[in-house]
Amino acid sequence: MRDVHGDIYVTLYDNDPRLTLLRHLLLAYRVDWREFGRDIFTDEELDAARLLLVTIPDECMVFGGPRLGTQFDLTNACRACATGARQTSALMLDSTDPEDVAKLETCRVVTCYQEIVVDEQLAAALVGAGVTGLSFRSVYAVRESNRQVELPRRQMWAEHALPPMSPHSIGINPRDVCASCRRGGFYFSQLSPRLAYRAQDLTGAMDVNRTWEWYGYVKFNGDLSEAVLPGPAFLVTPKVWRIFRDEGVTGFDWLPIHVVDE
Fold first, then answer.
1. Backbone conformation region of residue 122, classed left if phi is above 0, alpha if psi is from -120 to 50, else beta
2. pTM for this one?
3. Are residues 142 and 95 in contact, defined by beta-carbon separation less than 8 angstroms?
């Protein structure tokens, strides 16, 4: 698979004999590569989890956000990285790039950085199941001449944020964390990060929650029209995973959190 950055990914089980052959070929042709381990969980393991981290697949990502006109309130946001910015408008997505248009026409779920956008059928299934902590926002396509057209899609929205994760979390890269707020600019440093939380910090958790930490690349100088903002990740109960699964939505990774006693 080739991602949006042009990098090529090959996924193989660790006991697949083709893995050894591929390594030999890469060495023979002097190709640079990196390897990442990825944990695979059974349905029983996912169903037994307290919460699941939802990881965002690149293949269904579309461009959007503040550079397309999505509005934010920066009153309580970090002045250096904009972590804590509060979205105050519908989510604006690009509808001029042919690849993005194709995804909007064919994918039941698309993503925009850390945001998840679902079709109306999936939104109705989530509402019908009584999922807690979840609301929806409107989504618009921005076309030529900045013409805005509302889409039959909904942005998943969660107001409830968990406390900071435990230092026992693994697979998190703090290298680019904002020096001002220490909250924005986290990255997942491997394909299967394992977030850890103290049991008492999960009190009051809803079916849909966001992390205290904000993840992703940051580009911010005070001007939202040129900004790339980080965002909190989604943490959901197995109930939400089952709804996605039963609706036939694939492509996401659902990673159980680790509950620790400190």
1. alpha
2. 0.87
3. yes
Q: Which residues pair with 87 in a beta bridge?
A: 72
Closest C-alpha to 67, from 220, 230, 224, 232: 224
Produce one character per residue of 160-173: b if its CB has 16 or more CB atoms within 10 Å, e if not: eebeebbeebebbe
CA dist 193 and 209 (Å) reads 17
Closest CA to 156 of 72, 228, 44, 232: 232
Taking CA atoms, 44 is separated from 48, 56, 106, in Å, by 6, 22, 30
Tell me which amino acid residue 184 is. Answer: G
Q: Count Cβ neighbours within 10 Å for each residue of 142-151 and write b for 16 or more, e otherwise.
A: beeeeeeeeb
Amino acid at position 19, single letter: L
Residues 138-170 have pLDDT tens digits of: 999 999 888 999 999 999 999 999 999 999 999
Which tens digit of pLDDT belongs to each residue from 42-61? 999 999 999 999 987 778 89
H helix or E strand, kind and range, residue 232: strand 231-236
